[in-house]
């Protein structure tokens, strides 16, 4: 019978550190988004997809898009698949929220206050929101099959996604000024086991 091998105290400590840290290896992804002229592009939605990332998706809690000042606030909301979103109306007028997008078709008929039930976004894609009463109201829910996503900052067009496990990903980028129905731009990205991975995205074909 084989005898167990006893490590010295410092060896056991080193092994414990390796087990704890080695099982949680993750990196940082830094992305810089610009328009066709190379100017920083704020409010771009960037997310990393892979089969492994899809297995880690968890719905967000307490997600909502408020109707205030006859606008959707925020105008763009990014949620993982399976997230339920509330649509409270804080205006003094009633709204009629709807979407005809393939990723989620729904209708909240003319109402004030907060609907009793949230809207479940259970399919990946871009969901365009509108109001039947106020044509200028427009918003978007971006439903992603990954826990790794973010939005580019105002002024710099940069964002950082933390705690990304190493591996091969498809980096996708979407912006509200892309033509209606346009798919998110995509490019391959390899995330190393340590350190930061950097990517530059140039978004063309934006509408004014």
Short description:
The protein is mainly beta and 208 residues long. The chain has 2 helices and 17 strands.
Pick out its properties.
208 residues, 9% helix, mainly beta, single chain, Immunoglobulin-like, 2 domains, 46% strand, 5-stranded mixed sheet
What is this structure's SSE topology?
Elements: H1 9-22, E1 27-35, E2 45-49, H2 51-54, E3 63-64, E4 66-68, E5 71-73, E6 76-80, E7 83-86, E8 95-101, E9 104-111, E10 119-121, E11 125-131, E12 138-144, E13 149-151, E14 158-164, E15 167-174, E16 185-191, E17 196-203
Parallel strand pairs: 1-17, 3-7, 6-12
Antiparallel strand pairs: 1-14, 2-13, 2-15, 4-5, 7-10, 8-9, 8-11, 11-12, 15-16
Based on DSSP secondary structure assignment, what is the total number of beta strands?
17
Order of helices and strands: HEEHEEEEEEEEEEEEEEE
**Any idea of the CATH topology of the largest domain?**
Immunoglobulin-like
Rg, rounded, reads 22 Å
pLDDT averaged over residues: 89
* Gross geometry: globular
Q: Number of helix segments?
A: 2
Q: CA-to-CA gap between the ends?
A: 76 Å
Main sheet overview: 5 strands, mixed
CATH superfamily of the largest domain: Immunoglobulins
Give the proportion of residues in helices. under 10%
């Amino acid at each position: 019978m084989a005898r167990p091998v006893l490590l010295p105290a410092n060896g056991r400590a080193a092994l414990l550190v390796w087990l704890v840290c080695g099982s949680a290896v993750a990196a940082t992804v830094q992305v810089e988004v610009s328009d066709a002229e190379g100017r920083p592009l704020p409010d771009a939605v960037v997310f990393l997809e892979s089969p492994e990332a899809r297995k880690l998706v968890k719905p967000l809690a307490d997600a909502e898009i408020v109707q205030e000042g006859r606008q959707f606030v925020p105008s763009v909301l990014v949620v993982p698949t399976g997230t339920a979103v509330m649509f409270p109306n804080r205006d003094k007028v009633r709204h009629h929220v709807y979407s005809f997008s393939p990723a989620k078709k729904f209708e909240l008929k003319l109402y004030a206050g907060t609907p009793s039930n949230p809207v479940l976004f259970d399919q990946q894609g871009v969901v365009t929101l509108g109001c039947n009463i106020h044509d200028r109201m427009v918003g978007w829910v971006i439903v992603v099959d990954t826990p790794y996503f973010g939005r580019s900052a105002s002024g710099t067009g940069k964002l950082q996604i933390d705690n990304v496990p190493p591996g091969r990903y498809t980096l996708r980028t979407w912006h509200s000024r892309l033509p209606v129905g346009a798919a998110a731009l995509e490019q391959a990205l390899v995330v190393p086991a340590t350190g930061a991975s950097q990517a530059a995205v140039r978004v063309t074909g934006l509408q004014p």
